[in-house]
Structures are given as C-alpha cells and as structure tokens.
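Predict the 3D structure for this chain.
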Amino acid sequence: MAKNASTDALPPATPTPPAPVVALPASYEEALAELEQLVGRMEAGALPLEQLLVAYQRGAQLLAFCRERLQAVEEQVKRLEDGQIKPWDPA
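Done. Predicted structure below.
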C-alpha cells in the first residue's frame, strides 16, 4: 500500500487539553482588571499558541461575567426608575 506524502510530512495531531477551571473574580472591577491585563498580553504577541488559546477562553469567561453583572445592575436600575432607563445626569 502506497503512503501519501502529504500526510507523512505532518506530525500527528495532539488534542488540545481543556482549559483549566479558574474561579471567576469576586467583582466586576476585578474581572475587568484581569480582562484588561489579559488583552494587553495577547496584543503584545508574546504568548505561544497554546497559551493564546487558553487566554482567549479565559477572556471569553471574563467578558460573559462582566456582561451578566452589567445586565443585573441595569435590571435593578429599571426597577428603581419604574421600568425606564433615564439619561445620566451627574449634576
């Protein structure tokens, strides 16, 4: 049986290990700070591919956490304002 030269040149694929489970931060501010640091490291381009994937997954978790917190606060404000979001007036 003849071997295919194109598949002989490639090393066998190794499965990507699942991302480690890391607890979510206690607050929105902590999540946002971690997300900003993570984005900075990713944008610097110094992370190896595997670490980049893990960083992306963690960033997605942090982003979802922040969005959920913001949505919860928005719902609380709606209740306080009789179902309407009013423009912010810092005065």
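The first helix runs from residue 5 to 8.
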